[in-house]
Amino acid sequence: DSGVTQTPKHLITATGQRVTLRCSPRSGDLSVYWYQQSLDQGLQFLIHYYNGEERAKGNILERFSAQQFPDLHSELNLSSLELGDSALYFCASSPEPALNTEAFFGQGTRLTVV
Amino acid sequence: SQKIEQNSEALNIQEGKTATLTCNYTNYSPAYLQWYRQDPGRGPVFLLLIRENEKEKRKERLKVTFDTTLKQSLFHITASQPADSATYLCALNPYGNKLVFGAGTILRVKS
Description:
The complex is a heterodimer.
Chain A: E1 5-7, E2 10-13, E3 19-24, E4 31-38, E5 42-50, E6 53-57, E7 64-68, E8 74-78, E9 87-94, E10 104-105, E11 109-113
Parallel strand pairs in A: 2-11
Antiparallel strand pairs in A: 1-3, 3-8, 4-5, 4-9, 5-6, 7-8, 9-10, 9-11
Chain B: E1 3-6, E2 11-14, E3 19-26, E4 32-38, E5 45-51, E6 56-59, E7 62-67, E8 72-77, E9 86-92, E10 100-101, E11 105-110
Parallel strand pairs in B: 2-11
Antiparallel strand pairs in B: 1-3, 3-8, 4-5, 4-9, 6-7, 7-8, 9-10, 9-11
């Protein structure tokens, strides 16, 4: 168990809908990273938050947004969903803002858009 | 463009042998390189981190090398076991707070 909790584990929704994925980092970790993993693309970095502030952005679509709350949990909002958004979404946490330590990944949320 | 390349073909080896996985990168100068293990449908699990000024790092049956001149890292599992079968991902931070992953290599260890 990595200590990172993601909910829900599975989500099935229709095209055009909006969903929210939730991540609770390990106790004491200030950094949260979101990744998307689809079969043909591998792990794609989406966004990084450190102590409530956005620190880095990857290939995150405009339809996607994220935030980190004062209690350090993070939410990834996906709107106007398309079939191609079906993927595993992982969050990871680490204690530092820089990547000189390991990242701890949650078990992921499997999103299926039908 | 910036790329991280790992063997796209699965690596099949016999139990007890040493597995060697390769990670090549271009147009990056990472300060750190990490290796993760991922089982199907699960999140990646950290294995080892090596810094640019380190040539080699070991942890139990695992060994990682980092050649910044060749822009390559090798990941070795000695005395491999069927339980080592998984996808192995290399990851590096090209700059700032971004960890970029390779596509991964599937390792299958047969008994």
